[in-house]
Amino acid sequence: MPDIFTTKPNKTHSEQILPKEKIVSVQEEAPIRVQSNDHAIQSIENLIRKSPSSMRLFSAYSTRPKGITFANQEPDEAILLFLRRHFITNIPWILLVALLTLIPPVFFALLSLLPPLTFPKGITTVLTTFYYLLVLNYAFGKFISWFYNIGVVTQKRIIDLDSHNILSHNTATANFNEIVDVKFDQRGFFQSTFDYGNIHIQTEAIRANFEFDAAPKPTIVTDVISDLRVAQKGVHHGGY
Amino acid sequence: MEAINFNFIDLLSQGAGILIFKIPILILLFVYTIFTFIVIQRINALNRTINVIAAHASQLLQIFAVIQCLLALSLFLVCLVIV
Question: Residue A169: which H helix or E strand, with range?
Fold first, then answer.
C-alpha cells in the first residue's frame, strides 16, 4: 500500500488549524483528501510562521493575534489573520490634520498685519477651541474608520468589518466553501514599496464579494485564504 | 492709517448681534456635543462587534471619545457663560 494511504496526518498541525470533527470526517471519507488537506494545513502553518507578528495598538497585520474577540465567535474558532489597511494609508489625513492645525496661528499672524481689529477674547477663544475640536473630531473619525475597518481570517470563515465613517459600518461573513476565487492587486509606488494591496475574494453569485483594501502582505494573505479554502473544500488549487 | 474698530461686545449686546453670533455658536456646539455622545455609543457598538483587548486599544478609544464629549460639553457651557 502506498505511503500516502497509511501515513497518519500531523495531528499537531491539524488540531491547530481545523476543527477536530472536520479532520475525522475527512479521514474517513477519502484518504487522498487527508493528504491534500494536510498539505494545505502545513502550508498555512508555514506561511503564518514565516511572517509572525504581535498585536499592537496600530497593528495592521497580525498572525494568531491574542486579545481579539468578535461577535458570534465560536468557542473553538481561532483567529489566524487579523488585517487592517496599511498604516501608510493614514498619511494623507494626518498631513491634512497637521495643515488644518496650522491655520489658526497663520490666520492670527496675518490678522496682526492688518489694521487693528478689536475681537472680544471670549469669542476668539470659543471659536478657536471649537475649530480645534472639529479638527480633532475629524482626525478621530478618520482613525476610527481605519481602526474598525478590519478583516479577520479564522480557520472556519472570513469576516469583513467595513467602517466607512463613524456612523456607518457593515459586517460580512463567508465560509471557505462559499469562496470561489481569491486574488489581489498591487499598484503604484507606495503599494509596491510598503507591500500592501487590495485583496478581492469572490464568493458565490448570491453573496457579495469581499474586499480587504490596502491589506499588508497580500501575497501571504491570499495564500493563506487559498490554502484554507483547499483545506475546507478538499480541492486542489493551482495557485494564482 | 485709520484703525478699524469692531466692538463685538457692543454688537453682541444688541439683539441682532446675539442672533448673528451667540445663537449659531451655541446651536453648533450643542449639535457637536450630541454628535460626540453618538460617537461614544458607536464605539461601544463597534467594540461589541469586534473587541480589540490587545494593548487596551478599545478602552483607549472609549476614553478618548468620552474626553472629546466632555470637552465639547464644557465648551458649550463656557460659551453659554462667556459669549
Answer: strand A168-175
